[in-house]
Automatic annotation (TrEMBL):
Keywords: ATP-binding, Lyase, Nucleotide-binding. It catalyses: oxaloacetate + ATP = phosphoenolpyruvate + ADP + CO2. InterPro entries: PEP_carboxykinase_ATP, PEP_carboxykinase_C, PEPCK_ATP_CS. PROSITE patterns: PEPCK_ATP. The keyword Nucleotide-binding applies. Belongs to the phosphoenolpyruvate carboxykinase (ATP) family. One of its GO terms (molecular function) is ATP binding. Its EC number is 4.1.1.49. The keyword Nucleotide-binding applies. This is phosphoenolpyruvate carboxykinase (ATP). It holds the Pfam family PEPCK_ATP.
Protein backbone atom coordinates (compact mmCIF):
# COMPACT_ATOMS: atom_id res chain seq x y z
CA UNK A 1 0.00 0.00 0.00
CA UNK A 2 1.93 3.09 -1.19
CA UNK A 3 1.45 6.60 0.20
CA UNK A 4 3.00 9.40 -1.80
CA UNK A 5 2.96 12.65 -3.78
CA UNK A 6 2.77 13.19 -7.54
CA UNK A 7 5.77 12.31 -9.69
CA UNK A 8 7.16 9.66 -7.36
CA UNK A 9 6.23 6.67 -9.52
CA UNK A 10 3.02 5.38 -7.98
CA UNK A 11 1.31 4.40 -11.25
CA UNK A 12 4.42 2.83 -12.76
CA UNK A 13 5.34 0.87 -9.63
CA UNK A 14 1.80 -0.30 -8.86
CA UNK A 15 1.42 -1.64 -12.43
CA UNK A 16 3.45 -4.83 -12.09
CA UNK A 17 2.84 -8.41 -13.21
CA UNK A 18 3.99 -9.66 -9.81
CA UNK A 19 0.91 -8.21 -8.10
CA UNK A 20 -2.76 -7.62 -8.71
CA UNK A 21 -3.73 -3.98 -9.20
CA UNK A 22 -6.63 -2.41 -7.35
CA UNK A 23 -5.62 1.14 -8.24
CA UNK A 24 -2.74 3.60 -8.39
CA UNK A 25 -4.23 6.29 -6.12
CA UNK A 26 -7.09 7.16 -3.74
CA UNK A 27 -7.47 4.13 -1.48
CA UNK A 28 -9.52 3.59 1.68
CA UNK A 29 -8.35 1.44 4.60
CA UNK A 30 -11.40 0.25 6.51
CA UNK A 31 -12.06 -2.48 9.08
CA UNK A 32 -12.46 -4.92 6.18
CA UNK A 33 -9.28 -4.10 4.23
CA UNK A 34 -8.37 -1.66 1.46
CA UNK A 35 -10.42 -0.50 -1.51
CA UNK A 36 -9.95 1.89 -4.40
CA UNK A 37 -12.43 4.69 -5.09
CA UNK A 38 -11.28 5.86 -8.53
CA UNK A 39 -11.76 2.87 -10.80
CA UNK A 40 -8.91 3.82 -13.08
CA UNK A 41 -5.34 5.10 -13.41
CA UNK A 42 -3.80 8.45 -14.30
CA UNK A 43 -0.39 7.70 -15.75
CA UNK A 44 2.37 10.03 -16.89
CA UNK A 45 3.21 9.11 -20.46
CA UNK A 46 6.23 11.23 -21.33
CA UNK A 47 8.76 8.95 -23.08
CA UNK A 48 6.34 6.05 -22.70
CA UNK A 49 7.29 2.92 -24.64
CA UNK A 50 6.04 -0.63 -25.02
CA UNK A 51 9.46 -1.90 -23.93
CA UNK A 52 9.67 0.05 -20.64
CA UNK A 53 6.04 -0.04 -19.51
CA UNK A 54 4.06 -2.48 -21.68
CA UNK A 55 0.92 -2.60 -19.53
CA UNK A 56 0.46 1.16 -19.46
CA UNK A 57 1.38 1.47 -23.15
CA UNK A 58 -1.20 -1.16 -24.11
CA UNK A 59 -3.84 0.43 -21.87
CA UNK A 60 -3.90 3.45 -24.18
CA UNK A 61 -6.70 2.52 -26.54
CA UNK A 62 -10.30 3.52 -27.26
CA UNK A 63 -11.74 4.84 -24.01
CA UNK A 64 -8.46 6.28 -22.74
CA UNK A 65 -8.20 10.05 -22.34
CA UNK A 66 -4.85 11.61 -23.31
CA UNK A 67 -3.77 15.03 -22.03
CA UNK A 68 -1.12 17.41 -23.41
CA UNK A 69 0.24 14.90 -25.93
CA UNK A 70 1.28 15.70 -29.49
CA UNK A 71 0.02 13.45 -32.28
CA UNK A 72 -0.11 13.23 -36.05
CA UNK A 73 -3.51 14.50 -37.17
CA UNK A 74 -3.59 12.12 -40.13
CA UNK A 75 -2.30 8.86 -38.64
CA UNK A 76 -3.34 9.74 -35.03
CA UNK A 77 -0.04 8.30 -33.91
CA UNK A 78 1.13 9.84 -30.61
CA UNK A 79 4.70 11.05 -30.14
CA UNK A 80 5.29 10.31 -26.46
CA UNK A 81 8.73 11.94 -26.60
CA UNK A 82 7.33 15.35 -27.56
CA UNK A 83 7.51 17.80 -24.64
CA UNK A 84 6.49 20.90 -26.59
CA UNK A 85 3.24 21.36 -24.65
CA UNK A 86 4.56 20.20 -21.28
CA UNK A 87 6.46 17.28 -19.77
CA UNK A 88 3.34 16.50 -17.78
CA UNK A 89 1.60 14.40 -20.43
CA UNK A 90 -1.02 12.05 -19.07
CA UNK A 91 -3.20 9.06 -19.87
CA UNK A 92 -6.37 8.28 -17.91
CA UNK A 93 -7.80 4.81 -18.44
CA UNK A 94 -10.23 2.41 -16.74
CA UNK A 95 -8.69 -0.07 -14.29
CA UNK A 96 -9.87 -3.02 -16.40
CA UNK A 97 -7.50 -1.95 -19.19
CA UNK A 98 -4.67 -3.40 -17.07
CA UNK A 99 -4.45 -7.22 -17.53
CA UNK A 100 -3.85 -8.07 -13.85
CA UNK A 101 -6.40 -5.66 -12.40
CA UNK A 102 -8.37 -7.08 -9.47
CA UNK A 103 -12.10 -6.53 -9.86
CA UNK A 104 -13.80 -5.43 -7.73
CA UNK A 105 -10.96 -3.17 -6.55
CA UNK A 106 -10.64 -4.43 -2.99
CA UNK A 107 -7.85 -6.13 -1.08
CA UNK A 108 -6.91 -7.44 2.37
CA UNK A 109 -5.26 -5.45 5.14
CA UNK A 110 -1.77 -4.44 3.96
CA UNK A 111 1.31 -5.90 5.59
CA UNK A 112 3.52 -3.12 4.22
CA UNK A 113 2.99 0.64 4.08
CA UNK A 114 5.41 2.20 1.59
CA UNK A 115 6.05 5.94 1.64
CA UNK A 116 7.38 7.04 -1.75
CA UNK A 117 9.57 10.11 -2.14
CA UNK A 118 11.41 11.51 -5.12
CA UNK A 119 14.51 12.96 -3.45
CA UNK A 120 16.16 15.36 -5.88
CA UNK A 121 18.89 16.06 -3.31
CA UNK A 122 20.17 12.50 -3.73
CA UNK A 123 20.82 11.78 -0.05
CA UNK A 124 17.92 9.55 0.96
CA UNK A 125 18.52 5.79 0.56
CA UNK A 126 16.66 3.88 -2.16
CA UNK A 127 14.89 1.99 0.64
CA UNK A 128 14.72 2.23 4.43
CA UNK A 129 12.85 0.17 6.99
CA UNK A 130 10.99 2.51 9.34
CA UNK A 131 9.99 2.20 12.96
CA UNK A 132 6.39 3.11 13.74
CA UNK A 133 7.48 6.54 14.99
CA UNK A 134 9.56 7.11 11.86
CA UNK A 135 6.62 6.10 9.69
CA UNK A 136 4.46 8.68 11.42
CA UNK A 137 7.17 11.35 11.17
CA UNK A 138 7.68 10.88 7.43
CA UNK A 139 3.94 10.49 6.85
CA UNK A 140 3.27 13.83 8.56
CA UNK A 141 6.20 15.42 6.71
CA UNK A 142 5.12 14.19 3.26
CA UNK A 143 8.44 15.03 1.64
CA UNK A 144 9.19 14.83 -2.05
CA UNK A 145 10.70 17.12 -4.67
CA UNK A 146 8.86 18.95 -7.40
CA UNK A 147 10.65 18.40 -10.68
CA UNK A 148 9.96 19.39 -14.27
CA UNK A 149 6.95 17.52 -15.55
CA UNK A 150 4.94 17.30 -12.33
CA UNK A 151 4.04 20.92 -11.62
CA UNK A 152 3.45 23.91 -13.90
CA UNK A 153 6.37 26.36 -13.99
CA UNK A 154 8.88 24.06 -12.28
CA UNK A 155 12.21 24.13 -14.11
CA UNK A 156 14.56 23.18 -11.27
CA UNK A 157 13.77 20.72 -8.45
CA UNK A 158 12.31 22.11 -5.25
CA UNK A 159 11.89 20.36 -1.90
CA UNK A 160 8.25 20.28 -0.92
CA UNK A 161 6.36 18.97 2.09
CA UNK A 162 2.71 18.00 1.81
CA UNK A 163 1.36 16.73 5.14
CA UNK A 164 0.13 13.13 4.90
CA UNK A 165 1.20 13.24 1.23
CA UNK A 166 -2.02 15.08 0.44
CA UNK A 167 -2.33 18.31 2.45
CA UNK A 168 -4.77 19.84 -0.04
CA UNK A 169 -7.30 17.07 0.59
CA UNK A 170 -7.26 16.48 4.34
CA UNK A 171 -9.92 17.88 6.68
CA UNK A 172 -8.42 17.18 10.12
CA UNK A 173 -5.04 18.01 11.62
CA UNK A 174 -2.28 15.87 10.03
CA UNK A 175 -1.37 14.32 13.38
CA UNK A 176 -4.88 12.85 13.62
CA UNK A 177 -4.33 10.95 10.39
CA UNK A 178 -0.88 9.85 11.54
CA UNK A 179 -2.40 8.42 14.73
CA UNK A 180 -5.07 6.61 12.69
CA UNK A 181 -2.41 5.16 10.39
CA UNK A 182 -0.31 4.01 13.36
CA UNK A 183 -3.33 2.35 14.94
CA UNK A 184 -4.09 0.45 11.72
CA UNK A 185 -0.48 -0.60 11.28
CA UNK A 186 -0.19 -1.86 14.85
CA UNK A 187 -3.49 -3.73 14.68
CA UNK A 188 -2.65 -5.53 11.44
CA UNK A 189 1.10 -5.91 11.86
CA UNK A 190 2.15 -3.70 8.95
CA UNK A 191 5.75 -2.57 8.46
CA UNK A 192 6.63 0.94 7.30
CA UNK A 193 9.12 1.61 4.49
CA UNK A 194 10.54 4.73 2.87
CA UNK A 195 11.39 4.24 -0.81
CA UNK A 196 13.28 6.95 -2.70
CA UNK A 197 12.64 6.99 -6.45
CA UNK A 198 14.77 10.10 -6.95
CA UNK A 199 18.47 10.67 -7.43
CA UNK A 200 21.65 8.79 -6.55
CA UNK A 201 25.31 9.75 -6.81
CA UNK A 202 24.55 13.45 -6.54
CA UNK A 203 21.68 15.89 -6.62
CA UNK A 204 19.51 16.61 -9.66
CA UNK A 205 21.81 17.81 -12.42
CA UNK A 206 24.89 15.91 -11.26
CA UNK A 207 23.63 12.53 -10.10
CA UNK A 208 21.32 10.14 -11.92
CA UNK A 209 17.78 8.93 -11.35
CA UNK A 210 17.59 5.57 -9.57
CA UNK A 211 16.80 2.95 -12.20
CA UNK A 212 13.20 1.82 -12.33
CA UNK A 213 14.35 -1.80 -12.52
CA UNK A 214 16.13 -1.41 -9.16
CA UNK A 215 13.10 0.17 -7.52
CA UNK A 216 10.88 -2.64 -8.82
CA UNK A 217 13.25 -5.21 -7.26
CA UNK A 218 13.14 -3.27 -3.99
CA UNK A 219 9.33 -3.27 -3.98
CA UNK A 220 9.32 -6.99 -4.77
CA UNK A 221 11.77 -7.65 -1.92
CA UNK A 222 9.49 -5.78 0.48
CA UNK A 223 6.42 -7.78 -0.51
CA UNK A 224 8.20 -11.14 -0.58
CA UNK A 225 9.45 -10.66 2.96
CA UNK A 226 13.10 -10.70 1.87
CA UNK A 227 13.83 -7.34 3.47
CA UNK A 228 12.40 -8.36 6.83
CA UNK A 229 15.21 -10.93 7.01
CA UNK A 230 17.97 -8.60 5.75
CA UNK A 231 20.86 -7.13 7.73
CA UNK A 232 20.69 -3.38 8.32
CA UNK A 233 22.95 -0.41 8.95
CA UNK A 234 21.78 2.94 10.31
CA UNK A 235 22.41 6.21 8.47
CA UNK A 236 23.61 9.43 10.02
CA UNK A 237 21.32 12.43 10.57
CA UNK A 238 18.05 10.70 9.58
CA UNK A 239 18.79 7.48 11.50
CA UNK A 240 17.31 5.32 8.74
CA UNK A 241 17.74 1.54 8.72
CA UNK A 242 19.06 0.51 5.29
CA UNK A 243 19.60 -3.09 4.11
CA UNK A 244 23.13 -4.18 3.29
CA UNK A 245 22.04 -6.25 0.29
CA UNK A 246 19.03 -6.82 -1.98
CA UNK A 247 19.03 -9.45 -4.72
CA UNK A 248 19.35 -7.80 -8.12
CA UNK A 249 20.27 -4.35 -6.75
CA UNK A 250 23.90 -3.12 -6.61
CA UNK A 251 24.83 -2.98 -2.92
CA UNK A 252 26.80 0.25 -3.32
CA UNK A 253 23.70 2.30 -4.17
CA UNK A 254 21.86 1.26 -1.00
CA UNK A 255 24.07 3.62 1.02
CA UNK A 256 23.84 7.06 -0.64
CA UNK A 257 27.21 8.23 0.70
CA UNK A 258 28.93 5.49 -1.32
CA UNK A 259 27.61 6.87 -4.61
CA UNK A 260 28.87 10.45 -4.18
CA UNK A 261 32.41 11.16 -5.37
CA UNK A 262 32.41 14.46 -3.45
CA UNK A 263 31.89 13.39 0.19
CA UNK A 264 31.98 16.97 1.47
CA UNK A 265 29.17 17.93 -0.89
CA UNK A 266 27.22 14.88 0.23
CA UNK A 267 27.50 15.80 3.91
CA UNK A 268 26.54 19.41 3.22
CA UNK A 269 23.51 18.32 1.18
CA UNK A 270 22.46 15.81 3.83
CA UNK A 271 22.58 18.52 6.49
CA UNK A 272 20.65 20.88 4.24
CA UNK A 273 17.83 18.40 3.69
CA UNK A 274 17.78 17.51 7.37
CA UNK A 275 17.41 21.21 8.18
CA UNK A 276 14.50 21.53 5.77
CA UNK A 277 12.76 18.61 7.47
CA UNK A 278 13.24 20.13 10.93
CA UNK A 279 12.01 23.55 9.83
CA UNK A 280 8.93 22.05 8.18
CA UNK A 281 8.11 20.01 11.30
CA UNK A 282 8.22 22.97 13.69
CA UNK A 283 4.52 23.64 13.16
CA UNK A 284 3.71 20.12 14.42
CA UNK A 285 6.14 20.03 17.36
CA UNK A 286 3.70 21.29 20.01
CA UNK A 287 0.68 19.29 18.88
CA UNK A 288 0.05 16.40 21.28
CA UNK A 289 -0.80 12.98 19.95
CA UNK A 290 -2.32 10.57 22.43
CA UNK A 291 -3.73 11.29 25.86
CA UNK A 292 -0.35 11.87 27.51
CA UNK A 293 1.49 13.30 24.53
CA UNK A 294 4.23 10.66 24.72
CA UNK A 295 3.68 9.69 21.12
CA UNK A 296 4.56 13.24 20.10
CA UNK A 297 7.94 12.91 21.81
CA UNK A 298 8.61 9.62 19.99
CA UNK A 299 7.74 11.16 16.61
CA UNK A 300 9.97 14.19 17.19
CA UNK A 301 12.83 11.86 18.16
CA UNK A 302 12.31 9.98 14.88
CA UNK A 303 13.30 13.02 12.81
CA UNK A 304 16.78 14.20 11.79
CA UNK A 305 19.31 14.49 14.61
CA UNK A 306 22.29 16.80 14.18
Amino acid sequence: MPLLCTGTGKTTLSTDHNRYLIGDDEHCWSDNGVSNIEGGCYAKCIDLSAEKEPDIFNAIKFGTVLENVVFDEHTREVDYTDKSVTENTRAAYPIEYIPNAKLPCVGPHPKNVILLACDAFGVLPPVSKLSLAQTMYHFISGYTALVAGTEDGIKEPQATFSACFGAAFIMMHPTRYAAMLAEKMQKHGATGWLVNTGWSGGSYGSGSRIKLSYTRKIINAIHSGELLEANYNKTEIFGLEIPTAIEGVPSEILQPANTWSDKKAYNETLLKLGGLFKKNFEVFANHKIGKDGKLTEQILAAGPVF
